[in-house]
Structures are given as C-alpha cells and as structure tokens.
Amino acid sequence: MPASYKLIFRISFGHAFFADGILRDLRMVPVPVCFDKLRRAGLELRAQEDGIAVYGDEKAIARLRLHIGAAGRSLGMAFQVFFTDPHFFEYTAPSWPSGKLLFLDTADSVTDDSGRRIVHATPFVEASAFLERDHARLTPILGERVLAPTPAMVIQVDLSAALLDVVDARQRHFHIRFDAASGHWNDGKQGSGDARPDDDPARDITFRHFAGVNIADRRRAHLFLAKGAIQMREVSPPRLRLRPAPHEALKAPANRMAAAGVG
User: How far is CA 50 from CA 36, 47, 131, in A?
Assistant: First the structure.
C-alpha cells in the first residue's frame, strides 16, 4: 500500500472464548450502497486478522469531505458480518434469536479506560442489540429484499467529518467483543486421592463427587460435576488437583505428589 494512504477506520472483533481474545473466523462484506461509497471515494478496503480496515490518501479524504458536505450529515458505511466457524454460536453469548440480526453502530461507541473505542456501552455485546430483519434501522441498509446468504450481523460505521479530523489513530479503531457462553461441565480426574478446587479463574465454582468410573487399561477415575455454570474456553484451565490420601502423603515427598489434570 502506498505510504500516502492513512487509516480512515478499522473494525476489530474479540471473543472471551479464545485464549488470546481474538476472533478470527469471520468475513465482512460491504452492503451494496457502502461498496459504491468506497469505490466513488477511492478508498482501499483491506481484510485484517480480526476484521477490516479502510485506507485512503488525501484525495480520497477530500472526496469524503465533499460527500459528507453534500449529504449534510455523516456517511453510513455498513458491512455484513458472517461468522465462518460452524461452532461460533455454540460458544458465544448472547445466544442468537431466530430470525434476528445483531446490529451495532459506531455512532453509539464509547471510549474505555485504556482509550479504545468500544462499539457497545457494556464490556460485551448484549442481547438488546438484536433487531428484527425488517426493523426500521436495518431496512435502509439492507433494502427490502432478503439477502442471501443472510448475515448474522450488521455493523455500521458513522463516517463523519469529526472522524476524519481525529489525530489519535486509536479513535478510528472500533472494537467489538463477545462473551463466552456458559454451561455445566464434568471434570474427570485419574487417581485414587481426594480432589479439591484449584486456584484459578473458576475457583468460585464448586464441584461434587459424582462417581468413580473405569477407564482404559483398567484404571479408575473420579467424575466430578460442577454445581454451577462454567464459561466455555478454547483452552480450559485446570480446575481440580489431586491430593493423596493421608496415609499416602506420609510415604511420598511433597514434590512427588500428583500434578493437576486439565479440565
């Protein structure tokens, strides 16, 4: 990309399910009206690891200012969002209501304590952001006909003269973050000792011993059931660790005690 091009705006997605907090399995497509605006202004749309970024040179920025002036208001740049991981809706909160689309607008964004622009006022996307397909806010963006394939989400960028004047690039970078869904999970641990909660993010969740079970190679394992919901994670932290029975603890040094398994 030529050095004369500067960032106009960027949209990034995050997700609490992933260890690094980045949501990668998605595709963003400008709606037809937005595509025409990008083309007429001479803007460059680039896919990013976690979303998209739009760039332009001084001539493109000047054209945007003319379009904004002619319209007498900011330009709405709307994008359809498709989540390409087939399991996305299983580990994501809030759950997707049938027949509705998630809609977010950067005009509603807020700045968090670190200076980032968050498109939703809460730490994560909320269920109140879902709209009916024929909602008055969506019809001007998507048109009367049902798009095929239907996107799961629409994000609109409020492209104003004020945004073009922003000096701090962080204020042109908009963030969207999903929370992880919660469920009831089982923890199976090998060994003959007792088990207790480990010191980890889920330490407020307690477990009850459900049963002893036989596993491969004639080994025994203990099955523990969570008493509450546990958030799904791409990599689950250890939630239990084995502790030898009192008579076994006397025979073995502390550094040879059984290590934790992964929940």
Answer: 24, 8, 24
* Among candidate residues 76, 79, 77, 75, the one with its CA nearest the CA of residue 30: 79
Q: What are the pLDDT digits (tens) for 134-157?
A: 899 999 998 877 667 889 999 999
Which of 114 and 243 is assigned the larger pLDDT? 114
Q: Please tell me the distance from the alpha carbon of residue 162 to that of residue 236, in angstroms, as a whole number.
A: 43
Residue with tokens 């060994």: 191
Letter string b/e over residues 204-213, b meaning 16 or more CB atoms within 10 A of that residue's CB: ebebeeeeee
Report whether pLDDT(200) > 60: no
3-state SS, residue 125:
coil
**Taking all residues of the chain, what is their mean pLDDT, rounded to a whole number?**
83
Compute the residue count for the chain: 263
pTM: 0.77
How far, in whole angstroms, is CA 73 from its chain's centroid?
31
On the question of a cis peptide bond just before residue 151, with omega within 30 degrees of 0, the verdict is no
Helix H or strand E segment including 28: strand 26-30
- Report phi then psi at 59, rounded to 5: -65, -40
